[in-house]
Amino acid sequence: MAAVTEVGVPDLGDFADVPVIEIHVAPGDVVHNEDPLVTLESDKATMDVPSPAAGTVRELRVKVGDLVNRGTPILLLDTEGAAVEPPPLADQQEPPALDAADPVAAAREPAARSVAEVPVAGAAAGAGEVGAAAGASAAAGAGAGAAALADYDGVHASPGVRRLARELGLDLTTLSGTGPKGRITKEDVIAGVRGPAPAEGGVRGGSPPAGAGIPEVPAQDFSKFGPVEVRPLTRIQRLSGPALHRSWLNVPHVTHDDEADITDLDAYRRELDTAAKAEGYRVTLLAFLMKASVSALREFPKFNSSLTPEKDALIYKGYYHLGVAVDTPDGLVVPVIRDVDRKGVTELSKELGATSARAREGKLGPADLQGACFTISSLGGIGGTSFTPIVNAPEVAILGVVRSRMTPVWDGSAFVPRLMLPLSLSYDHRVIDGALAARFARHLCHLLEDVRRLVL
Amino acid sequence: MENQTTEVLVLGAGPGGYTAAFRAADLGKKVVLVDREPALGGVCLNVGCIPSKALLHAAKVIAETREMGENGISFGPPLIDLDRLRAWKDAVVGRLTGGLATLARQRKVTTVRGHGRFASPHQLRVELAEGGEVSVGFEQAIIAAGSEAITLPFIPASDPRVMDSTGALEVEEVPGRLLVIGGGIIGLEMATVYHELGARITVVELLDQLIPGADRDLVAPLAKRVTRQYENVFLRTRVTAVQSRPEGLVVSFDSASDRAKAPATDTFDRILVAVGRRPSGSMIGAERAGVTVDPSGFIPVSKQMRTSVPHIFAIGDVVGQPMLAHKAMHEAKVAAEVIAGKNSYFDARAIPSVAYTDPEVAWAGVTESEARAAGVAYGKGVFPWAASGRSLTLGRSEGMTKVLFDEATGRVIGCGITGPSAGDLISEAVLAIEMGADAADIGLTIHPHPTLSETVAMAAEAFEGTITDLYLPRRP
After folding, report:
1. How far apart are CA A171 and CA A193, in angstroms?
2. Which candidate from B212, B302, B378 shows the least CB-CB separation from A89?
3. What pLDDT, on the 0 to 100 scale, is given for residue B7?
């Protein structure tokens, strides 16, 4: 008999109450040393808890969505010896012994046995004895913990649908079919998986939200067309992808474009930047955009709100924390600069420089990524003429800026060269309407065109 | 040959084994396939399904040309060259097994020829056919060791005139009188062949009908035909002794039949023993791997084909009845896919059985006698082929198609077909069972006319009461 070890959550650093987002093993599974058991997710990162030893999983102590801390029991592990213990094979029938006195009858016996076990497929209403005809074949045995392994006796579903359900881990007996005569169709299975968000960890699991029963993009074998290589998504991409998908599907997006004349602002910025360089930091347009945004948020408080979960009220925020999208080698991150309303351009510039550096080094902590009211995404360093940023829900708007360019502008009597900055403001149309967005954008441009207004 | 290691080891290269090996390879696994025989394909391809079908085709040609004599086309008696017949049969087999070797090579499946026995839960020792021994280490294994013909202890096995199915397929000669012990599928198929080649056949069966397990009404047309054609068909009769004598094999019978009663003894030129097959579970050292084998040699498995040892799977004849290649092939895919991490499951609702006799007998799902015994509320639609234009144009009228339906839902739960090509016709019923089709679904599906496949739709219409090709008194 093997020893039973309780495996607990290892030291996680500073985190507390971290949710379990994935469980990789089930009771009866054989695991090797270092095999991942569960995945935890902090605001900053996901981490796998590895098995401390080889063995067989006896019992799970956590479920998806549970909040765990250092030392929280995850599961009970039977160490190696247990792995060779035969798992129970249910419904085992004792086959008849060969009868030497009556060899022909004995030889016939297996056939007779098969007769008793030939499937009674449609004897659907549960006449019993339905199922696989393999004589000695037993019911769900080793590793058959999940409901998906249930025998789908009497379920009106074709073999292909039954296979799909098993692949997706869905118990067909819990589903009602929408096909002819109540047949469970492939679409029913897909809807059953997507469907009303499962109670456990649906949102964090990264699945699309309730009601979005959209069909999956069909899988393709690209290797048919040429050489391919599979590279896993980075940790950041795995975290940000579901968040972006969630926002895209939940928020009715509109993007409003405008243009600000920043000729004067840019001259002023260059002056400051020249001075700053000597002190070891840079002054970028972003600091001014942040100050201008705070002013616009004050003027139009709806932009500094969020919908209640019931979507019947707006929560107005009395603080001004701004998210700033930063491009890192591993993907997009959005650190948050706090209390922008109480900071000057110089202070903001210094903080932006330090934060960006930490983001690129992957050193941002969870606190650095929380609490934004509004986000700015700047592609000005790269180029472009406009784009559609995705609102970082539950925020209600995001400002995208691209590269400013010198443009001939009619001043009433002549074309004059002016440095123009294109702005793309995406907003949640449930909260903000087009006129308000246009006013917000105009207000921003107005501030940026005359830098003196920023200090007012 | 050197010791080797692999991800997946498959023991046995029959239809189950090679299917499992190929599927596992296609799912990215490194696979070693071990078999005793020089050619892949196991019993089915080498000494079973395939060569017997070649000989049955020859038998059919002989029968049809003879019967056509009554309708104006005569060829004269056949000239039978057994050597050429055997060579053709072997060529068919060779083409198929050669194809398998190519498929294995294309998938980079390593084949090892020899007798494999487990040495530990992760190691198989193979006694190589070429001499010597090799050890194959594996992460996971699929046992597809199959089955072998059962021998009867009181029959002198050393007498070359006593054959099993493998020997019978070699058609060394056409005996004057052949005794077939066992009135099941294998015995009757070989009886069909030897009868048409010119032997006088006696069939002896312990139970009270041919092809026990199939419904009696389905077997009746076959029983009627062979009773007329063969010398004797003895039911409820036991062979109690066989003596090898120079003039022949003297067989003692113990007959409980009150109809065609066997004599106390009779003398035959050859005997075919076809009393069933025994699983090979106890011949592979399974105990050293920790795999549970039951006393009769079957290896119990879960519906994911897992044995009592989680990383060792078993499929095919060795896991239980029915011992059929198509069952093995589906189990093979389940095992290979589970090994590759897919959540596959053997949940077939019907496994068809076919006797390639003349006429053929095929059935799937629940039989009528099972339904009766289980108290299932069922209804049935029967279409006699005497009303099928296509059947009559083939010169045959004795066939029948019977479809069983669940009374409550109208869904197909079973089907039995007797007649030429019944084995090809049964697939529609198997699909209907898997899809949960009911009588209307089948009856309203347009079947081409005139075909034998129509008879399935006609049987469904007979159940529904919409048939016009028969007059059936209105159901109450």
Report:
1. 10
2. B302
3. 97
